[in-house]
Input
Amino acid sequence: MKHDHSPVLPGHGATDYARYMRIDALLELQRSPDEVIHRDELLFQVVHQSTELWLKLAAAELAEATAQVVAGQLAAAEALLVRATLAVRLITDQLEMLRYLSPVDFQAMQPALGNGSGAESPGWREVQGASRKLGRAFDEQLATHGVAATELCPTDPSDPLHRLAEAMVEWDERVSVWRVRHYQMALRIGGHRPAGSPGSPTNMLAKLAGHRFFPELWQARMSLTTNG
Output
């Protein structure tokens, strides 16, 4: 049994775990106790910084899924998209942490945020771009197979093309749920007026909640009711 646990990897840190995970740098990314104007800044930063990490992973999975779709490896693309979807579920769930941030406390720490907005999230922009590329690659596969989007409903679980379409719908839905949860949290802790109120920052959040990256797949579902 190996007893010597001395680090062998290059970098900073007392252990290889610390060096590989870059723990020292990671834990220095939050404002120090001397910098914060409110103790809940740590809560706010941890939620949002971890969100950026999960979005980074989701965007990478979407990019690889797109490459697999282009290569005709639809089952592999589906598995990657499932992983990206789970990342969005996780960032939705962690919004629950902000339930413990009161509107009064949020207002107190607001000066520390400057003019920052979640709309400026680089991770979210990467996810948006990657989703659009996936949609285009999927459309090319439909054309190659001579299949219309409306033919993908009802789903054939034995067909990789159908299964990928279902995974894409699930991705769209989970992103929408995340947006709705974000909207509700903005109302709860941000003290913003509801969507529809003139000048309310929540107007854009509410509008985006209904956005779909793959509208033709949703239209295929609606066509079942229309034609029924």
Remarks:
- Residues 70 and 137 are 6 Å apart (CA to CA).
- The first helix runs from residue 16 to 21.
